[in-house]
Request: fold
Amino acid sequence: MELTGILPAIRNMKDFEKAIEGNHNHVIFLETRLSQIGNLVKYSKQKNKIVFVHADLIQGLKADEFGMEYLVNDLKVDGILSTRGSVISSAKKHKVIAIQRLFALDSTAINHNIKLINNLKPDYIEVLPGIVPSIISEIYDKTGLPIIAGGLIRTTQDVRNALAGGAQAITTSRSDLWN
Reply:
């Protein structure tokens, strides 16, 4: 599966309704509660959406092997986002799309994350903030993995700049940018 274009990132129910009715094939759940995620995923699947979940941000879910089994085997999510190497390894073990979130805070953080990514080989890397095209390009050059830009994407120009910098897709919770 190739991820391209805008990937709606959902933080609240208003955005969920907008994303579910939109013409995007994918939805990403960034923040929700364990008591809600099952119904959200089920409804999304009924609407033929490809569902990704940020495993670290589900309140009440421990992002460990048992939490992954629940997301993959019970909820049938299509992919997992995480900052944690163990979660990425588990996602790959369960044969769902693994997206490693990388916070480009400074050179040390980038170099540490690149070493981790080169060991784990996630399917995609989500670079945050996604508004620095030169960092997107550098991370792609050092890993060879497809890049998703996210974080602080506020305008259509930010989207264009990230794509021009080498991002294959954009995650944003700004629903005005979804179209």
